[in-house]
Amino acid sequence: MSYKTDYNRVAGLGRAGEGVHHFWVQRVTSIALVPLTILFLIPFGRALGGGYEALVATYSSFGNALTAALFLGVAAWHFAIGMQVVIEDYFQGGTRLVLLVLNKLVSFALGAAGVFAIATILFSA
Amino acid sequence: MGRQERGTNMADVNRGDRPLSPHLQVYRLPLVAKISIMTRITGVALGAPALLIVWWFVAGAYSPEYFAVADGLLSSLLGKIVLIAGLWALWFHFANGIRHFFFDVGRGFELPTVAMTNWLVIGASVVLTVLTLLLV
């Protein structure tokens, strides 16, 4: 028989201080991605297949570079927490832990690579 | 607290008339559930075109020669098939994501509305894919 209070028995268990944070971020990034998807797709689709000149012509424009960088950065964040839910649903134990770490590393590395590549194209043009 | 009435107690031995949850191996999922699963599948699958597009940008930052390789591959027949499939997956995920904004605030759960928005999501994913291909 423990003499702890009810509160003390449960403090720190369950939501682990995170609560609905991921749920909320998933929705905030979704809202941001609605306009960003459209603003990214049109210039990207037009530049695709046009060679190096088309790439530089498109992404030496500050607006195109900014929306593309925002799109890839926010999409990487959205992908990271979305994949986390998927991994948590289908994997247990050590496999889950390894996949969760890999997921964060790969997602954010991809996002950062995209943003830095676009910045490099913008600044070297 | 007094003894609960028969049938309201979870530990009651009479299980015969209690409702069962859907048996997943024989339960035919409604279309809204299949679309929900497709939203998850398209979300995961979109990682592949995202990887290709980031590679395309990184190649562009690296050198014009390396970019020619990436740009050539992405605009080849195989590249186009992958990117157009990715484009449809993106618009499907996008369209059902917008429907889920309504679900999140408790709207659109009436069965006739769900039946209508099911086809709205499927239709929008196709229309937006064709529209994007026409615009670029």
Protein architecture, described:
- The complex is a heterodimer of chains A (125) and B (136).
- By secondary structure, chain A is an all-alpha fold.
- Chain A has a single domain, classed as Fumarate reductase/succinate dehydrogenase, transmembrane subunit (3 helical TM bundles of succinate and fumarate reductases, Up-down Bundle).
- Chain A contains 5 helices and no strands.
- In chain A, α2 crosses α3, α2 (21-47) packs across α4 (62-90) and α4 runs antiparallel to α5 (93-124).
- Chain A is elongated.
- The relative contact order of chain A is 0.12.
- Chain B has 136 residues and is mainly alpha-helical.
- Chain B contains 5 helices and no strands.
- The longest helix of chain B has 28 residues, at 77-104.
- Chain A binds chain B through residues 27, 30-31, 33-34, 37, 41-42, 44-46, 48-52, 55-56, 59, 68, 72, 75-76, 79, 82-83, 86, 110, 113-114, 116-118, 120-121, 124, and chain B through 40, 43-44, 46-47, 50-51, 53-54, 56-58, 60-61, 64, 67-68, 71, 74-75, 83, 87, 90, 94, 97-98, 101, 104, 132-133, 135-136.
